[in-house]
Amino acid sequence: MKSSGSFLFLLLVLLTAFVADTSQQPKSGVKAVMDGVVTRLYKTYQPQQLDTIQQNFVLSVLTDQEKKVLATQYWTFRANVPVVVSLMRDQGQKVLPFWLKDSGFRKTELVVKNEEYTYEVWQKTFDAGLVSLGINGFDKHRPVYFISVKAQHSGDPLHITPIFPAQQTFTKFQPGAFTYHDWSDLKLNEVPESLRGQTLFQTIRGRAREAHLVGAFRRTKFPATTQPDHLLLTWSGNPATTQDIQWRTSASVPTGVTKYWLKGSHDTLTKAAVLYKMEDRLLQNDRYAHRFTTQLTGLQPGKTYDYQVGSTQGRWSSVASFQTQSNTKEGFSFIWFGDTHKSPVWGEMAQQTLTRHPNIAFYSIAGDLVSTGLHRDEWDELWQYSGNVFQSKPLLPIPGNHDSQDGLGAWMYQQMLSLPHNGPKHPEVPDEQTYAFNYKNALFLMIDATAPIEAQTAWIKQQLSQSKADWKFMFFHFPPYTFEEDYADIRKAWGPLIDQYHVDMVMSGHVHYYMRSKPTYNGKDVATPAQGTIYTISIGIPSEHEIWPDEPYAALRYKNGPFYQLMDIQGKKLTYTVYDKDGKVRDELVITK
Q1: 322 - beta bridge partners?
Q2: pLDDT of 77-115, one tens digit each?
Q3: 148, 208, 249, 499: which could join 253 in a potential S-S bond, CB 3.0 to 4.6 Å?
Q4: Run of H or E residues at 61
Q5: Which is it for the CA torsion 273, 302, 419, 580, positive or negative?
Q6: 7 in helix, strand or coil?
Q7: 178, 5 in Cβ contact below 8 A?
Q8: Contact present, 45 and 198 (Cβ < 8 Å)
Q9: Has residue 23 got a pLDDT over 60?
Q10: Could you give the CA distance from residue 459 to residue 455 in angstroms, rounded to a whole number?
C-alpha cells in the first residue's frame, strides 16, 4: 500500500478539517459541529450509552442547523456552468449518509470498481455556482465516497474552483486512475463509458473520521494525572551537548519545567518546557492531555546528568539520569526494534534489554510504534508498557504506515517526539519525520518511507556524499527486499545511492518477520559486506507467517518474533547480534573494515 507523491497537499487541508485549525472551513464547519456534539454527548450520556449509539440516535440529538452543516460542508466547490455530479459510494457501507437522498441524489444502475471495492453511482444535477456535499457518514467507513463532475451541456467549458478542501486534486475519470491519495496503488479497473473523461475528485480515506460517532468512543487504560509520567528522551541537536526531554500530565497542569544538574553536583539549573495541548476527541475518559518538551543545550560531552520534570505549581517526577555523548574514540552500542505496535510483550522485552545491556547509547524503532497513530490511548500504552526505558536512554525512531494513517499525517507522532529538523526542505516531507544525526563515527539516516520517495532522494544523496563517517546506516520502514510486497520504487531510487556510497546496513520493519540479507550490491549477492550492503528486517512483537516462500537474497530468516538487535561499534569493527525476548542469540554477524 503506497501513497501518492502529491498526497500531502490534500493531507494538510484535510488534517485541519479533522484535527486542528479550521481556517479553511467556516467556524460552523464540520469540525466545529462535531466538537460541540461530542462535548454535549459527554455531558448527557453515560459511557455505556455512547458505546451503542447508531445513526438514528445521532440524528435525534442534532439541531437542524447542525444537520445542515453536516449535509453541506464536507465538500464544497463552485462550477462555472450547470453540472452533473456523480457520487461513487462503496456498496459495503451498510448505512446511507443521512443527507444523500434528501438532497436530491438518485441511485443509478452504474457501477465503478477497483480491485477491492464496488461502488454504486448516485447522481444529481446542479445549477452553475456553489455545489455543497455532506459527510461520508457517522461510521468510520474507510473507503469513503468520491465524486466526478461533468458539464450538463456538452461543449460547455467546465471550470471548478475548490472551496473545501482548498487544495483539492483532480484527475481524469478512467480505468487506471486512483481515488485515494493514501492508497495510490489501488487503481480503478471498471469505469462505465458514460463516466469516462469526467473530472475525478481525489480524496483520502482519513475523511471517514471527520464525523465518526458510531462505534467511535474509546477509553485509555492509562489516563493522564497531575503527576508527570511517560518521561522520554530524544535528541533534536548534537548528542554531545544537547538533550530533549518529554513528558505528559493532565490538562490541569498549565506549565512544565526541567531541573537538571551534573551528577554529584549541587548546582541545579532549570529550563522551561514548551507545552503541546493534545486532544483526542473520542477518548472519553481523557480527551485532553498536556505534552511538555524541554530542549537542554550547552551540556558537557561525556557526562552524566540527573534531572527531574514537573511544575512549580504541581508535582515532580522522580530523579532520572542521562548521559551525553563523549568526544573520545571509545566505541558505543545501540539497540533497535522492528514494529512494536504498542505491544505489552514488546514492552516487557524492551525493559529486559536495558537490564541486559545497560551501557547502550540509545534506542531506535523502525516504524509502526503503534497500530493507529491518531489514537492517543495507543501512545499511552506504548509509553506505559516500556516502563522507564526511555527516561534514561534516548529514542530515535522513524514513522511507519500505522503511525501516519489514512492520509491524515502523523501529527500525534510529531507532538510525542522532539527530533532533528534537518530533513529535506520539501513541502511533501513532514518535519522531524526524515532526519539525520551522527553519533561518534556513525551516520544515521532516518527516513520516513511513507512520504514521497522522490522528494527525499536528493537529500539522501547529499547526506551520504558529504559524510566522512566510518559507518553509514539507513532506517526506513518499508524493506527493499521482501517477499511480502515489491518496493521496486525504493530499490530504483535509493538502491544506487546505497551502493555508490556504501551504506553498511539498512534497517526496516513492516512485514513482521526477521530477515538478514547476504551482502548485496546492485541487487546481486556479493562475497563480503565490504563489497555490499546488509539489508535487515525485524519485528518487535509476536508474529507468525503461514506463507513462507524462499528468498534467494536472504542469509537467515525467522518467521516468528519478537526480536531485538544490538549493534556494537568499536572503531572499525561492528558486531551485530540478534536476540529473542528470552535473551537467546538468534543471529550474529561481525563486519571489520
Answers
A1: 305
A2: 999 999 999 999 999 999 999 999 999 999 999 999 999
A3: 249
A4: helix 55-61
A5: negative
A6: helix
A7: no
A8: no
A9: no
A10: 8
How many Cβ atoms sit within 10 Å of the Cβ of residue 362?
23
Give the SS3 label for residue 123: strand
The pTM (predicted TM-score) of the whole model is: 0.94
DSSP state of 327: S
For 212-257, the DSSP string reads --TT--B--SS---SS-EEEEEE-SS-TTT-EEEEEEEETT----E
For residue 458, which phi and psi values (nearest 5 degrees)?
-65, -40
Instruction: Return the C-alpha cell found at 518.
Output: 547476504
Q: Is the dihedral of CA 174, 179, 181, 182 positive or negative?
A: negative
pLDDT in tens, 179-206: 999 999 999 999 999 999 999 999 999 9
- Calculate the CA 139 to chain-centre distance: 22
Place of cell 489501488: 186
C-alpha cell at 557: 530468516
Per the prediction, the chain carries an average pLDDT of 95
514 and 366 Cβ atoms separated by less than 8 Å: no
Locate 167 and state its grid cell: 487544495
Q: Which residues pair with 304 in a beta bridge?
A: 323
Nearest to 17 by CA among 89, 96, 75, 72: 75
> What pairing do the DSSP bridges indicate for beta strands 573-580 and 563-570?
antiparallel
> Is residue 426 exposed (0-12), middle (13-18) or buried (19+ Cβ within 10 Å)?
middle
DSSP 313: T
Cell numbers representing residue 70 in the block = 453536516
**Helix locations, 470-510, DSSP H:** 488-500
